[in-house]
Structures are given as C-alpha cells and as structure tokens.
Fold:
Amino acid sequence: MNWKRLLLAVVAIFVAEFIMGLIFHRGILGETYSLLMQDGTFRPESDMKALSWVRIITTLVFCFFFVFIFVRGYESRGILEGVRYGFYIAIFIGFVMAFNMFVWFSLPYWLTWAWVGIYIVEFIIIGIITSLIYKPKPGA
Structure:
C-alpha cells in the first residue's frame, strides 16, 4: 500500500468535498435549507456553525475510508475504476442516507432525490480524483 499517495488522495478529496459542498449546499440548495431552518426542520445556522467541528471530523473519516477501501480493491483500471467505485459508494451510502433523512425529518420528497443525485455526482468526482492520485508503490 502506498501510504503517501493514499494520504494525498485523502487531502485532495477533502478539499473537493468542501468545494462541492459550497456549490451544492450553499449555492444550489441554500435557499431551500434556509426555509427548512425557518420552519424548524433544520437546526438554526448558529447551531450548525457551532457544531461545524463535527462535520470536519466526519468528513475526514469519510475521506480516509473512501480512499482506503478504494486502495484495498485497487485494480489499476484508471478513471473508469474511480467512476464505478464512486457510483457504487453513492448508492450504498447516499441513497440510504437521503431516504433515511426523508423518513426522520419532514423534508420535501424532491429534496431526497436531489440529494441522491448530488451524492452520485459528488462521489463519482471524488472517485475519479482518487483514481488519478492513487498508484501503488513501484514493484508492489
């Protein structure tokens, strides 16, 4: 296992997750989230900001295990390996999480499907990034 490349991929997809979060959740869905805060479905923004350290830790854990699992099944098939892996993880995690959120909270049904779509796009992108960065040690 090439730990240097693995950790580089973790850092790269952590940054990508942050950027995509701004685009998808602050930009595209920001107005919807504001309405959900106003009606009490979501925590107030001040509470979310106070708990942002939890999001940072969970995102780092996710990024590490996203790359670690990719590396454990590495097949040296290039970008398409990253696309396939990202899609599988999106369905495995994203589909389940989005619909569990729909059950737990009073959310619009369309938002659930929007989240599934976002997870698919997001995880395919980080799968591609991972496949471009991670290479096993020479001779391994």
